[in-house]
Amino acid sequence: MPNTIHQDEGRPIVNSNDHDSPAESRASGVLNLTHLRTLVAVVQEGHLTRAAERLRISQPAASHHLRSLEQQFGLPLFTRTPRGVVPTAAGLQLSEQAARLLASSLELLSTASELRGSASGRIAIGTIEDPSVHAALPSLVKWFHEHYPLIELSIESRNSSSVRQGILTGEINAGFYVSCTNEANLREYEIGQRELVVVAPQSWRERVATATWPELAKLPWVMTTTGSAHSEITAQLFRSHNITIRPALEVNTERLLRAMVSQGVGLGFTRREFAEAEQARGAFFIVPISVHRTTMHFAYARSAETDPLIQILSRGLATVLPVAERLIPSTAKPAEK
């Protein structure tokens, strides 16, 4: 691209009728983007008239813009040579910075336009302790920040029963939990199976290594609170083996259950991934007996199916947790912003 700026026949690069005060221009401290646009166009086109035509302004107006900038900057932007007019070193450097500033201004306007049409509000999500869900949540938060910056996310740690109840009462908008029963008022999606195993204190290893279900039933057990999802799943397992167990202690979370088992209080029932981690550090022994599988759900209230925030959340979940893609209806997939 040529740096020489040719004068039009007999026309000065700067209009001699400009009488702006240099001191007044510099004192304002405000840059006129239209003037900067002219500076960039003249340098890029290498010709004042062509630049004016490109900007759809008159040649005198373009000259006025350049004169105003020279006054405001207090620097000559162009010099005359026998072959025409060329930008000074300052003119070239300032035109490059002006081009970047103009690009930033367009980006700013674009962002403002997106924000005007962007969804806003608050989404509260409840979740149980689950490695795969916890691994996906940071990516979900980043996805929201990138695509829907006006939506505020809140993530709460709860047990399964509390997640379900929170959705039903409206305390939270959606959540992740395990359950062996369906709730008619919730739209539930399966996002995977979780394997539950019987665990014992490491010191009980020889005692339970070859035990049968009837023999295990005679030992003390650590149970979760009656009515919790974990308690329901455990009761279902015991019924399937036609046994009744002897609870030594009731706790309200699966995490506390694992802590009590590791301290030798009794047997317990927990997810395999947690059991294997505890066994690796010498706190547990996984009893080699039949396991039980339960379903991990993502759910929200059926009454909220058409809520734009729930649809956006569903889309984000399908993006960061691929297994959920086939489980989320197409109506819950708004177009990517």
Write up what this structure looks like.
With 337 residues, the chain is an alpha/beta fold. The chain folds into three domains: 31-112, Arc Repressor Mutant, subunit A; 118-190 and 295-325, Periplasmic binding protein-like II (D-Maltodextrin-Binding Protein, domain 2, 3-Layer(aba) Sandwich); 191-293, Periplasmic binding protein-like II (D-Maltodextrin-Binding Protein, domain 2), CATH 3.40.190. 45% of the residues lie in helices and 21% in strands. The chain has 13 helices and eleven strands. The protein has helices spanning 22-28, 33-45, 48-55, 59-73, 89-116, 131-147, 160-169, 205-208, 213-217, 229-240, 254-262, 272-280, 308-320; strands spanning 78-81, 84-87, 121-127, 151-157, 174-179, 186-201, 220-224, 246-251, 268-271, 284-286, 292-301. The strands form three sheets. Strands 3, 4, 5, 6, 9, 10 and 11 form a seven-stranded mixed β-sheet that branches. A two-stranded antiparallel sheet has the order 1-2. Helix 6 links the parallel strand 3 and strand 4. Helix 2 (33-45) packs across helix 3. The protein is elongated, with a radius of gyration of 35 Å. The two termini are 37 Å apart. 32% of the residues are buried. It comes from Bordetella bronchiseptica 253. Residues 31-88 form the HTH lysR-type domain. Belongs to the LysR transcriptional regulatory family. It holds the Pfam family LysR_substrate. Keywords: DNA-binding, Transcription, Transcription regulation.
